[in-house]
Amino acid sequence: MGDRRKAGFIGLYLILLITILYGGGGGGGGGGGGDGILVVESAPNTNITQVLCNSGVYTRGDPFTQSLDYVLKDIQSSTPSRPSRDYKTISPFPNAFAYARATCTPSLSPSDCATCLVSAVSVMQQTCTNRIGARAVLYDCSVRYEQYPFSD
């Protein structure tokens, strides 16, 4: 009988802890906003896991430059506001399409996601200058762009 009582107490404790962490009860404590995702406000982990560069290159004045600029700006501004922190886009310029996808760890706040994406794009641009495709995987986010449609 003592084990049952102990198990019941532990179960009640876990329910209380989850309620506090996810802000259930409308009072707000612990973040999450009631959407079932715990949002942690802190500096994102921007340690680099992997950077890959496509072997193909583009040159200055290539129409791909405009398309790439468009998709990189679009993913950086749109991804953080998505509840899933996952966003795909394509450039609207038919002369040279660019495709991109960005993801952040869903528990990141929108501002932390944006910070992480700025780091990912920066390291990708420094490492893969003038490449028609690249991928930067950081601990809390990733960015990929290509000159062709992709899924991953």
UniProtKB/TrEMBL annotation:
Its main location: other. It is a single-pass type I membrane protein. It is found in: Cell junction, Plasmodesma; Cell membrane. PROSITE patterns: GNK2. Keywords: Antibiotic, Antimicrobial, Cell junction, Disulfide bond, Fungicide, Host-virus interaction, Lectin, Mannose-binding, Membrane, Plant defense, Repeat, Signal, Transmembrane, Transmembrane helix. The keyword Membrane applies. It comes from the Eukaryota. Pfam families: Stress-antifung. Residues 46-150 form the Gnk2-homologous domain. GO terms for cellular component: plasma membrane; plasmodesma. GO terms for biological process: defense response to bacterium; defense response to fungus; killing of cells of another organism. GO terms for molecular function: D-mannose binding. The keyword Repeat applies. InterPro entries: Cell2Cell_Antifungal, GNK2, GNK2_sf. The chain crosses the membrane at residues 7-25. Belongs to the cysteine-rich repeat secretory protein family. Plasmodesmata-located proteins (PDLD) subfamily. This is Gnk2-homologous domain-containing protein. It comes from Amborella trichopoda.
